[in-house]
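Protein: Alpha/beta hydrolase
Species: Kitasatospora terrestris
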Amino acid sequence: MRLRMPAAAVALAGALALVAGSAGAATAEPAPVAPKVDPVAWTPCNPDPSKPDPGIYDCAVYPVPLDYAHPNGEKIGIAMMRRRAADPAKRIGSLFLNPGGPGGSGYLWATTTRFEKRVTDSFDLVGFDPRGVARSNPLRCFTTAEDADAVFNRMTGVPVTAAEIDGTLAATRDYTTACGRNAGPLIEHMSTMNVVRDLDRMRQAVGDRQLTFAGFSYGTLIGATYANMYPGKVRAVIVDGNVDPQLRLHNGVEYDRQRAGGFELALDEYLRRCAAVGAPRCAFGAGDTRAKFDAIRDHLRTSPVTLPNGSVVTLSTFTGEVANALYAQTRQAPLARSLQALQQVISPAPAFGLAAEPQVPVAEAEALAVPAPHALREAPADTPYTSDDSYYGVNCQDKPYPSNPKVFANLARAWEIEAPTFGRYQAFDAPACATWPAPAREVERYAGPWNRHTANPLMVIGNLYDPATQYRFAQNMQRELDSAVLVTVDVIEHCAVGRSKALNALVTSYLVDQAVPAPGQVLKPDLDPFPAV
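Structure follows.
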């Protein structure tokens, strides 16, 4: 469990000055070429033991140094899974995959179906959990689930009142104190720089002379960092759903402010497209969708809504679920039904001058709510804490922030002026980094340069309305890298590979044939978020 899903208008000048002053303090130069490493010891495994073993997967735990300043010292294990190339005669090498996060588990991404057959014929697909994540020596700030709940349950995802803000900041400080007490030495070595060092060792360990890699969301920072730490080792690197490396590694506050703007852009386009197709294709499409949405949000700022099943829609659950739905087209028609159902509960009479609006079952609104509690039951004492805290473990080491948590309440007030739905939401994603035990200003991390000449060009993919990593970030990624081509997809979604046949054809040619796409292409997705009914 983490504090909540990350989301981030005018940042306060004082906060920006604090951040800018610390930005370059811990920048590290690229690591020297790693010494010869042992090969991976693969063992056959079944990714889904509930089904017959397909006989095409292998697993391993690969040892890497905890601290690269002491490469012969303590080791930690990186959990890896590979899907062997379907056509050994055509095998080129390994395609390493990272789904983002930070803290996303990539282990089972060896089973992904995002790629065309020519890719799976030609490459071993290799998924892995980065250091501190899931199966790879998980970074844990608590020893029991009860201890974690005692802290997390005091936090509000989108705090508005003084009591909510004070309670959230106090609980966040307790969280980072627990991290310092329980996480162990790994907490000092979680930066993306160390993930990339691990990746280069794994590349050598599978026998590849150069790296073939696809990184999604935060995984794009892994790809960009690798390209600049090991530029001669780049064979083909795809970065999809891009961060802005320069901004992210030098000014966490401004990066988060622009993230909030990206979510707002995606929401605006979502509401526009919903209105354009109208009801019933988009269940929320009758009337002024923007005005209706804003009325729901503003109502929830002061008045949570209790649904017939007892579950409660709060500003926090509402904002988080709207953000989540913008990540994928398949969630956007259901979101429209949930919004329409919630409006029916809040305003039973026709609103905004409409004689009648389409009615949907009120139960649709439950997707925006906190689940109603079940019957009371006795929880066993000292339930093991099985989540990990790698999200902050990486973010707080990569992104420099002010050290005063109170700054974030001021940022929230400023940001929600230009990002009324997601400004406050994004501002309260980062307070943990203010008191993190091993912050960016004190650790070894890679913060540039980003323009080292690579052995082969990179492929950058950006969606016009990506909520989590706005299109501007993809444009900046392409400009900051020495040699990269940007391919654009006109879609409201986070990341695009596997969502467009036209894009996947370019991806396949790039990975298999090393054919760099022509620049300036704008592609369409395969699906319509509001299919005709």
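Remarks: The radius of gyration is 23 Å.
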